[in-house]
Input
Amino acid sequence: MSSFTYVETTGLLFGAKMLSDGAGLTRTVSDPDTDGLDRGTVGRIGPRLAPRTVAGRQTGFTDEQRVAMAEAVLRAMSLTEGFARLVMLTGHGSTTVNNPHASGLDCGACGGHTGEANARVAAAILNDPGVRAGLKGCGIAVPEDTWFLGCLHDTTTDEITIHDADEVPKSHAEDLEQLRRWLAQASALARMERSALLGLSPQAPGVHASVIGRSRDWAQVRPEWGLAGNAAFIAAPRARTRGIDLGGRAFLHNYDWRKDTDFNVLTLIMTAPLVVASWINLQYYGSTVNNRAFGSGNKVLHNVTGTLGVLEGNAGDLKVGLPWQSVHDGTRFVHEPLRLNAFIEAPVQAIDEVIAKNETVRNLVDNAWIHLFAISESGRVSHRYRGGLTWEALV
Output
């Protein structure tokens, strides 16, 4: 415990930061540095893949581990052919200030951190010449002129940071510059699309600066809407959903069961990303239908308690779930509380085998915490799961 006088005195040391934050001068991850390099690349340590011992802990990966990881990653994304010269592996994260719930806007699958580290490590492994040679023995031929980029999507500002860009071969310089131009255009379009939901006019002058400014505003209770509105999970070839406006409400997983001969990838999808998507969906669901019990109340009144959680006010129980401002805009609910609809293009028998072998998945689908549908080879939603490994034919 510290004395009141000590706390009050040391609090003055943060005066300059408070003034900087209040004036909107705080730098964000998306801000370019004056020398033109991507913010986030400067001063960071690149991935070190070589196996070694640090403080008694084993880190890094052996050659065999790298090849196995590379194969698993590529097959999980159904990315085993048709490689471009530049391939982006993009994690996501959020830039906010004075936000105890900042981790809720980062990557849930990354433990509430950004996906930058995973993306950069994966890119480094896939760019390893030894890994490329090993992948050939696994039946995956990555062209010599293909280069993988570890990237980060800032979901507050909709800007993309390309990490370790200085390592890209000079032969790809023009491709990299073209990619930067495309990403800048895509970011601008995404900001305009998001601005309406944030209460901003998409056509208003300075709308892009306004969206970016929310990431610096320490008094902003709604820097972004996170995954509010999430409603579906789709595991199918990308061609099934290309060109369809899903309203930003679906988790998309590119999956081709014809390339998954032993259905190990299907098992991975249903036991990992599908389960994570259900956690996200149920967190938003509970925080909307009963915020007092399953949410965390008014964000403005939150007091951070240690590093464990928040109190609403100065007493009571630690709050769970999302604050009111994450699901309500002050007038109406922004999130519609629907249980996740999961659509998987794979044989029903293969899906049944995964359900039968995995209790966690079985509990989710048998108790209707998520609604499961199968997509046929023709691309139509053909069956609905009814529990107990039984299905209802829809077509």
Summary: The first strand starts at residue 52 and ends at 54.
